[in-house]
Amino acid sequence: MTETRFGKVKYATIRRDFNELRSAIRRHDSFAAEAAWEKCERWMEAISPESIRAREVIQERDE
Questions:
Q1: Taking the C-alpha atoms of 16, 22, 23 and 28 in order, what is their torsion angle to the nearest 10 degrees?
Q2: Which residues neighbour 2 within 8 Å (Cβ) at sequence distance 6 or greater?
Q3: pLDDT tens, the chain, 63 aa long
Q4: What count of other Cβ atoms lies within 10 Å of the Cβ of residue 34?
Q5: Which of 25, 44, 50 is nearest to 36 (CA)?
Q6: What is the pTM of this model?
Q7: Rg of the Cα atoms in the chain
Q8: What is d(CA 55, CA 51) in angstroms, rounded to the nearest whole number?
Q9: Using CA atoms, how far apart are residues 1 and 37, in angstroms rounded to an integer?
Q10: What is the maximal distance between C-alpha atoms in the chain?
Q11: What are the two backbone dihedrals, phi and then psi, of residue 6, each rounded to the nearest 5 degrees?
Q12: Are 40 and 17 in contact (CB under 8 A)?
């Protein structure tokens, strides 16, 4: 079965935010791109291998 969530968040939400950023960039709309980027920043940790490893280290430390 394909996982449709990252934690409590649907992948569709992440995709929607990045698609909004792509669209703003293609329109050369810097204000919309900045607003969209702010939404996307929260997902950067989710796709960064370094942050995933850091989270694992913290969880191991707390156990």
A1: 150
A2: none
A3: 456 777 788 888 989 999 999 999 999 999 999 999 999 988 887 676 666 666 666 667 777
A4: 11
A5: 25
A6: 0.66
A7: 15
A8: 6
A9: 31
A10: 48
A11: -115, 100
A12: yes
